[in-house]
Amino acid sequence: MQGKHKVVSSLLVVVFSLVAGLAVAAGEQKVALKADKAGKGASGTAVIADKGGDRKEVAITAKGLKPNSVYTVWLVNMKPKVDMAGLGEGDYSLKSDDKGNATFSATIGSADLSKWQLIELAYHPSGDAKNMKELMNTALIGKLKK
What is the Cα Rg of the chain in Å? Predict the structure, then answer.
C-alpha cells in the first residue's frame, strides 16, 4: 500500500512540474509594478502572454491609484538614451474606478516589446490623457525582462 502512495505522489510531482513548465513555455511573464512618486500606496502587475504568431498581450491590473483618475501606459528606455512609446492604440489611457482600481490590455508585436526596458503608468491630474506635460507624473513602474 505504501508503494502505491509513493507512485501516486511521484506522478503528481511529475504532472505538476509539467504543468508549471508549460506555463513558462507558453511565454507568460509577470512584471511587478511598483509605486513611483505620483503613485504612493499603489501597486500592480503586468502579465505578458503569447497571443499567437508574433504577438504578445500585456494585461495590467492596478490598485491603490487615485480614484476616478486618468492614467496612460508607456514603454520606456533609459539607456542608451531616454525614449518612450505609448502601449496600445489611441491615447493609451485607462481610468481608475471610485476605489482606485484599474485594468488595461493591449497587444504588441514580440519584437517591438523586446526593444523596451520599462513599463510605466503616468498619472494625468488634469484628466486629459493627451496632456504630454504630465508624463513625468509616474505612478507605477516595472522592469521588463529580456
Answer: 19
pTM of the shown model: 0.80
Q: Is residue 4 part of a domain?
A: no
Of 58 and 90, the structure prediction assigns the larger pLDDT to 58
- The mean pLDDT of 109-128, rounded to a whole number, is 96
In a domain, 7, yes or no: no
Q: Per DSSP, what are the bridge partners of residue 15?
A: none
The secondary structure of 9-59 as a DSSP string is HHHHHHHHHHHHHHHHHTT-EEEEEEE-TT-TT-EEEEEEEEEETTEEEEE
* Rounded-to-integer distance, Cα 70 and Cα 81, Å: 27
For residues 101-123, average pLDDT: 96
The range of the structural domain enclosing residue 46 comes to: 28-143
- Work out the mean pLDDT of the chain and round it to a whole number: 86
Query: Cα dist. 81→68, 77, 87 in Å?
Result: 34, 7, 19
Number of domain units in the chain: 1
